[in-house]
Amino acid sequence: MLAKHDLLLKSAKRQVDRSKWHCCDHCKYKAFTEEALQRHLKRMHNGGGKGTEKAADVADANECKKCGKTFASAMNLRIHVKAVHLKTRDLKCESCTYATAYRSQLLQHMKVI
């Protein structure tokens, strides 16, 4: 595993050497690695092949029936419905009574306590 310092240097080099960016042909997304671009194409443009749908077209398939908000993935739609409409807070802090539906919020909370 790379040391934290090495990871920071690698990250800084990526920011400086913009000639190596891999650009999406369907939107303004840029990635440093081909793998990241392929993940983006799969998630946002339904694979990235000929006749690829734009992100907005894919998002329409993931529209919340309660409020009309659209999401780039079905998983994000499920999380939205669970958190906003069902008010489910199933991710709980082990140190206190804090609970949330969002993993990112729980991780942020854990940094604070």
Give an overview in words.
It is a single chain. The chain has a two-stranded antiparallel ribbon. The chain has a two-stranded antiparallel ribbon with strand order 3-4. It has 5 helices and 4 strands. It has helices at residues 4-16, 34-44, 55-60, 74-85, 103-112, and strands spanning 22-23, 30-31, 91-92, 99-100. 46% of the residues lie in helices and 7% in strands. With 113 residues, it is mainly α.
The number of strands is 4
Structural class: mainly alpha
Order of helices and strands: HEEHHHEEH
How many alpha or pi helices?
5
Helix fraction by DSSP (H/I, runs of at least 4): 40-55%
β-strand percent reads 5-15%
Topology:
Elements: H1 4-16, E1 22-23, E2 30-31, H2 34-44, H3 55-60, H4 74-85, E3 91-92, E4 99-100, H5 103-112
Antiparallel strand pairs: 1-2, 3-4
Summarize the structure.
By secondary structure, the chain is mostly helical. Helices cover 46% and strands 7% of the residues.
Main features:
113 residues; mainly alpha; two-stranded antiparallel ribbon; 7% strand; flat
